[in-house]
């Protein structure tokens, strides 16, 4: 499979980019010479992150973006259209984990709804809003941040699989969303893939992960810069050899 990078990409949007993996992905793309829009709900945190990056001479730009608010999503799309005119890369990084490990029967519908609002519906909302801009690119790429916990293959093989009904099933749904968009956009040359960055130390897991955010950002960046003819509609979970590190759906 062709996993080389494409040099014609110039602009990117990373959601949930004011901290953690999102911030590391944004910084990595910036260091490749791109203009990167950092999407974040919190204006103060987002602008502070952009200020730190621009102080390094990088072309970082803040865009207020709450993926659960359609008006915010539409406004972000309009801002990017006015500023850049097109978009080469969309990294759907924003995600949430609202419940601790507990039996599925103890998980409330409200917890599931809140999780899906960000992890599934938010991805669809942002992707749809950015598609007109991505279609103006010569090498558009969409990367969705998933998790091994969304794998039905892995879950069905292990009775001790972590019981996180809301989060796990939202990532399973996100995997299905990824395949659906990959199939729709395949003929247009827009590559759509899912990435599980591994056990990264972030706020979401109380910084209990074993990887740094920079390490967790490597694979999303790699998939965001695939050359034309690269894979689409796959989920990957390690970056040493993509042919042998595909995440089992």
What does this structure look like?
The chain is an alpha/beta fold. The chain has a single domain (11-244), classed as Rossmann fold (3-Layer(aba) Sandwich), CATH 3.40.50. Helix content is 41%, strand content 12%. It has helices at residues 20-30, 43-54, 70-83, 109-134, 152-156, 165-185, 213-224, and strands at residues 11-14, 35-40, 60-64, 89-92, 141-145, 191-195, 235-236. Strands 3-2-1-4-5-6-7 form a seven-stranded parallel β-sheet, sandwiched between helices. β1 (11-14), α1 and β2 form a beta-alpha-beta unit. α1 (20-30) packs across α7 (213-224). The two termini are 19 Å apart.
Descriptive keywords:
about 250 residues; alpha/beta; Rossmann fold; seven-stranded parallel beta sheet
The number of distinct β-strands equals 7
Alpha-beta classification = alpha/beta
Q: How would you state the average pLDDT, rounded? A: 91
* The CATH topology: Rossmann fold
Radius of gyration: 17 Å
CATH architecture: 3-Layer(aba) Sandwich
- Percent strand: 5-15%
Number of structurally distinct domains? 1
Shape: globular
**So what's the oligomer here?**
single chain
> What separation lies between the terminal Cα atoms?
19 Å
Helix content: 40-55%
User: How would you name the CATH homologous superfamily?
Assistant: NAD(P)-binding Rossmann-like Domain
Element string (H = helix, E = strand): EHEHEHEHEHHEHE
Structure annotation, total helices: 7
Low-confidence stretches: none
Strand order of the largest sheet: 3-2-1-4-5-6-7
The largest sheet is: 7 strands, parallel
CATH top level assignment: Alpha Beta
């Amino acid at each position: 499979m062709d996993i080389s990078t494409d040099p014609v990409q110039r602009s990117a949007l990373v959601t949930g980019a004011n901290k953690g993996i999102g911030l590391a992905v944004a910084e990595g793309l910036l260091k490749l010479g791109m203009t990167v829009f950092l999407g974040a709900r919190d204006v103060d945190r987002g602008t502070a992150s952009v200020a730190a990056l621009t102080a390094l001479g990088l072309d970082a730009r803040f865009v207020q973006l709450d993926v659960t608010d359609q008006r915010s999503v539409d406004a972000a799309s309009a801002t990017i259209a006015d500023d850049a005119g097109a978009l080469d890369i969309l990294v759907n990084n924003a995600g949430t984990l609202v419940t601790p490990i507990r039996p599925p029967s103890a998980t409330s519908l409200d917890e599931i709804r809140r999780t899906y609002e960000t992890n599934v519906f938010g991805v669809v909302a942002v992707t749809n809003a950015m598609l007109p801009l991505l279609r103006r690119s010569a090498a558009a790429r969409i990367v969705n941040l998933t998790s091994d916990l969304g794998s039905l293959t892995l879950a069905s093989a292990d009775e001790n699989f972590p019981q996180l009904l809301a989060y796990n099933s939202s990532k399973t749904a996100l995997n299905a969303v990824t395949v659906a968009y990959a199939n729709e956009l395949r003929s247009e040359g827009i590559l759509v893939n899912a990435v599980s960055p591994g056990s990264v130390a972030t706020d979401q897991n109380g910084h209990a992960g074993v990887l740094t955010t920079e390490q967790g950002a490597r694979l999303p960046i790699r998939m965001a810069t695939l050359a034309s003819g690269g894979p689409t509609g796959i989920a990957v979970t390690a970056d040493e050899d993509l042919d042998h590190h595909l995440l089992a759906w």
